[in-house]
Amino acid sequence: MELFFAFISQHLVLAGAFVSLVILYFVTESRRGGQVIGPQQLVGLVNREKAKVIDLRDGPDFRAGHIPGSTHIPLKDLPTRFGELAGHEDKPVVLVCKQGQFASGAGKTLREKGFKQVYRLAGGVSEWEGARLPLVKE
Fold first, then answer.
1. Which of 4, 45, 61, 110 is the one with CA 20 to 30 A from 36?
2. What's the pLDDT at 31?
3. In sequence order, which ranges of the chain are alpha helices (DSSP H)?
4. Residue 23 to residues 26, 29, 32, 34: CA-CA distances in angstroms?
């Protein structure tokens, strides 16, 4: 470990460049999955631009409470259910999961399929619920 710190102290420019590249990589990768938005921005997109909200959670979680008007397409079924999103390639599509951790991968998939306006709800349904916004329970 001493050698590691000695290397860093002797090569500050190289270590700084490495850290910068790692940060840049993670920022770039996170944006490929779509822009991250908050609950209030989601409400605005739905009201102003008729955004399509896709809930990626499994059935029991979806039935326990989901955003009003959202379409349930579990993450595992997304590759086989693109037909349900036909006509929304140029419209906003917002991906929602439990806490925001799975929406990025789904966003990358949608972008590869030609969807131009892909968004992810930061914090997922947990954030929506924390903002005291309504959930539909079945």
1. 61
2. 58
3. 2-10, 12-32, 39-49, 59-64, 103-112, 124-130
4. 5, 10, 15, 18
Helix/strand/coil percentages in the chain, nearest 5 = 55, 15, 30
- Predicted pLDDT at 8: 84
Cα separation, 69 vs 107, whole angstroms: 19
Using one digit for the tens of pLDDT, what is the confidence trace for 86-124?
A: 888 999 999 999 988 889 889 989 998 999 999 999 999
Encoded tokens for 53: 């909200």
Cα dihedral angle (122, 137, 77, 26), rounded to 10 degrees? 10
Candidate list 75, 85, 96, 97, residue with the active-site label? 97
How many Å apart are CA 118 and CA 104, to the nearest integer? 10
**33-130 CATH fold:** Oxidized Rhodanese; domain 1 (3.40.250)
97 assigned to active site: yes
* Residue 37 DSSP label: E
Nearest CA-CA partner of 37 in 129, 120, 102 = 120
Question: Which tokens sit at 113?
Answer: 């399929």
